[in-house]
Design brief:
Helices cover 68% and strands 11% of the residues. By secondary structure, it is α+β, with helices and mostly antiparallel strands. β4 and β5 form a beta hairpin.
Length: 429
Amino acid sequence: MGEGKGITSVLRAPVAARTWREFGYLLIGLPLSGVYFCLAVTGVSVGAGLLITFVGVPVLFGVLAMCRGFGHVERARTRSLLGVAVATPAPVGAGKSGAMATMGAMLRSGSAWRHVLYSVVHFPWAVFTFSLALTLWATGWASLLYPLYFWVFPAFTNQPGLQLFQNGDYSFYLDAPLSIAGTCLMGAALTLATPWVIRALTSVDRLLVTSLLGPSRLDSRVRELESDRGVVVDTAAADLRRIERDLHDGAQARLVALAMDLGLAKEKMTEDPRAASRMVDEAHGEVKLALRELRDLARGIHPAVLTDRGLDAALSSVASRCVVPVKVSVDLPARPAAAIEGIAYFTVSELLQNVSKHARARTASVDVWRSGGRLLIQVADDGRGGADPAGGSGLAGLTERLDAVDGVLLVDSPAGAGTTVTAELPWRD
């Protein structure tokens, strides 16, 4: 089956839309690259030569801005013809006030100078790819279709066929049936091979555009950290709202009611001691319930057992509250950083809550171990499966929390075959 698909893809490649888009990309690339090269080299040379005067600074600024404009064209061309979406680099000079500050930011921008480098180095590559692709493509199709038009030569010229070469009085023409068939076979081979050559050439273009015209790794990392910081802030705000709500609706309301009951008991102490004693007993029960709610709330913020005894004891405590039997295995050579330990605890806690509420499982297991510089957590159950992080469940929020600390959450949950969730966190001492 796989071999048949491979042969079919090879045979379809010469007429595939992808091949023609990539071929068009290489053809258009030469004139565009010629313009980029001439303007960039001329502009940088003039600007550098004028740096002995102040005029060179705005000239270089204009050249760098122009090359960034070239980058917009190339990213759009790569996206539409090659199907590669390259992110736009961060704007240069954002937040700067004044022309001098903006020009200085542009001259110090590594992204802008990478655009200049692309404008220079892409031109010789475009000449090579244009020449090679056009030669192979034209030769292949012309040879493949030669049996259809070779009659033109004897009909409208004095030649029996296409002349390949002439040496003195000897000339070789493609006019015999064997030479015509050989030309057609050679054309078929070239036509089938050329799409893959074009694909290899455009893969280099993809690399050039991605590495030189896209954001640098540092810029991408900064954007990722900014996004993660937003997730952390939103998560912290949501946790604070949850704690406030739990206090207001739970322990606080119970303590207010308790204060009122004790006030009534105090008033009845002299009039009806028996009723006052009964009210004090009820208040004592309310105090116990309030203390239990406060302990649960404190455990939800950061359990004392985690601080005192580590993940093994804390996760065993969480597993004991699950509605199904849970086997806990923690194999760690040492304790990670408190922040990572806390995230690991709450990850397991939330996953076991999902097991209790949704999995319909009979048993579950929790395994925690260290592998290199990563803390690995795996929570598995034998329930109904079908968990989908993209469905807006708690798994999606958990994925965002882990991503904020360079963690990863993987969910394997085939329908009817249980769920296995694996979490990776960075190990920080």
